[in-house]
Amino acid sequence: MQHPAPSRTLVRPLSRARRLTVLALAVCVAALSAAFVIVVVNATFASAIAPFAPTADDGLIAEGAVVTLADDDVPAVARLDAALRDAMRQAEAAAAVDGVAFQVTSGWRSSQYQQWLLDDAIELYESEQVARQFVATPERSSHVTGHAVDIAPVDAQLWLIQNGASFGICQTYANERWHFERATAPGGVCPEMRTDAAA
Ligand SMILES: [Zn+2]
């Protein structure tokens, strides 16, 4: 019995042109794979070492920016506790009658931003103990919960120190003339100030 001759198509070697095409494709795949690995490794490495920089979405108010309690589109103001914002707006209206205008220099802050401020202060004072007298930890800061607002300029601070209690607003740290919280009932008496953020 005669076997049929094996099909030549199965054993025919690839033509030179096809071999070159396959080789070129293999080189492309290898190059793309290598590029992908480099991108992934770089991205992982960058995210591991990139320093945090606060943005407006963290509650940052850029130095020199004029922000008021009316700026609902600014996260530092928009994410304040509503009762604090309302009380501050009432105080602001009363202060305006006396010719005094409020500016918000800081309000709500993300905990990452608060930690960044603390780290910065630790570097500045070369002491965590000293730094914490000026910057609370994220866990303790009333800025992170939206229950504190920093006000400028000085005449606005002095107006609030004198009249804020009528609106329930009090300076709460003796070493921070600009820092206000709702700390009493409207028309009440402000509690004794804490000496600093670490107290
Ligand atoms: Zn403050």
Automatic annotation (TrEMBL):
UniProt-listed Pfam families: VanY
Keyword Cell membrane appears in the UniProt entry: no
Domain D-alanyl-D-alanine carboxypeptidase-like core, first and last residues per copy: 79-158
Gene3D superfamilies: 3.30.1380.10
InterPro entries: VanY-like_core_dom, Zn_M74/Hedgehog-like
UniProt KW Transmembrane helix keyword: yes
Keywords: Membrane, Transmembrane, Transmembrane helix
Taxonomy, superkingdom: Bacteria
SUPFAM superfamilies in the cross-refs: Hedgehog/DD-peptidase
Residue intervals passing through the bilayer: 20-41
Entry protein name: D-alanyl-D-alanine carboxypeptidase-like core domain-containing protein
UniProt organism field: Microbacterium pumilum
Species classification: Bacteria, Bacillati, Actinomycetota, Actinomycetes, Micrococcales
